[in-house]
């Protein structure tokens, strides 16, 4: 079984590599994000141990690229390694699609144990999200409403995804732009409003639950 370790701290990289090899895993390593991404494509590991702070490409953006392009990078389990001061980045990473995280310093034996459980599917996140008859199936990248497939563009899919994962929470337009469009620009940009309208039109059963919060943004209301 293959494991990719992307970590710029050579001591940590070598330590983690040693423990995985000791368990019989085939291991490749990289010290920056872009090299790690290239290795991921060619090596095709089942597990990626990924530092948050990396040269060239950080762990959060690494994770987003992998989850956005499964046809190129597959669907590996991703465990983030983080310093205590980087918790906000970790939360963003988990929202984007990482499976777990560990704070430094950590016991490599615990990392091995958690990795085995994730690989076996014991604690891996369920990649289906449902609400009021609408289901997002991440594994098939498909949305259904009452069992009928609804065609969504990638931006519509990503927007619906962030609403589902933050159900009941108000999301500012700026945050939506950052997560879906990868830009913080907002002034004069009505992209979010237009795509919200498209979702309401296509998904009648939850159109009233996608609520506008004046002066702030949008949220997916719980069913009362």
List the helices and strands and how they pair.
Layout lengths: L1 E5 L3 H13 L3 E5 L2 H11 L3 E5 L7 H10 L1 H4 L3 E6 L4 H10 L3 E4 L4 H13 L7 E4 L2 E4 L4 E4 L2 E3 L3 H12 L5 E2 H9 L9 H12 L7 E4 L3 E4 L4
Parallel strand pairs: 1-2, 1-3, 3-4, 4-5
Antiparallel strand pairs: 6-7, 7-8, 8-9, 10-12, 11-12
Helix pairs in contact: 1-6, 3-5, 7-8, 7-9
Report what the structure shows.
With 224 residues, the chain is α/β, with parallel strands linked by helices. It folds into two domains: 2-120, Response regulator (Rossmann fold), CATH 3.40.50.2300; 128-220, Arc Repressor Mutant, subunit A (Orthogonal Bundle). The chain is 42% helix and 22% strand. It has nine helices and twelve strands. It has helices at 10-22, 33-43, 59-68, 70-73, 87-96, 108-120, 154-165, 173-181, 191-202, and strands at residues 2-6, 26-30, 47-51, 77-82, 100-103, 128-131, 134-137, 142-145, 148-150, 171-172, 210-213, 217-220. A five-stranded parallel β-sheet has the order 2-1-3-4-5, sandwiched between helices. Helix 1 packs across helix 6 (108-120), helix 7 (154-165) crosses helix 8 and helix 7 (154-165) packs across helix 9. The longest helix is centred in the N-terminal third of the chain and has 13 residues, at 10-22. The N and C termini lie far apart (47 Å). The mean pLDDT is 86.
Summarize the structure.
The chain is α/β, with parallel strands linked by helices and 224 residues long. 42% of the residues lie in helices and 22% in strands.
């Amino acid at each position: 079984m293959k494991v990719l370790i992307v970590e710029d701290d050579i001591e940590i990289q070598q330590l983690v590599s040693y423990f995985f090899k000791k368990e019989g895993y085939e291991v490749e390593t990289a010290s920056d994000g872009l090299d790690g991404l290239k290795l991921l494509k060619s090596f095709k590991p089942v597990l990626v141990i990924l530092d948050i702070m990396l040269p060239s490409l950080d762990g959060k953006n690494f994770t987003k690229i992998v989850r956005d392009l499964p046809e190129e990078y597959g669907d590996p389990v991703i465990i983030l390694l983080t310093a205590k001061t980087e918790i906000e980045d970790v939360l963003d990473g988990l929202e984007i699609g990482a499976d777990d995280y560990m704070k430094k310093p950590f016991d490599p034996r615990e990392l091995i144990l958690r990795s085995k459980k994730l690989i076996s599917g014991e604690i891996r996140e369920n990649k289906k999200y449902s609400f009021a008859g609408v289901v997002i199936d991440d594994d098939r990248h498909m949305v259904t409403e009452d069992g009928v497939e609804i065609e969504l563009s990638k931006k519509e899919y990503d927007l619906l995804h962030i609403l589902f994962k933050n159900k009941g929470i108000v999301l500012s337009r700026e945050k939506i732009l950052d997560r879906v469009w990868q830009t913080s620009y907002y002034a004069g940009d009505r992209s979010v409003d237009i795509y919200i309208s498209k979702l309401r039109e296509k998904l009648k059963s939850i159109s009233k639950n996608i609520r506008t919060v004046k002066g702030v943004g949008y949220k997916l209301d719980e069913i009362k």
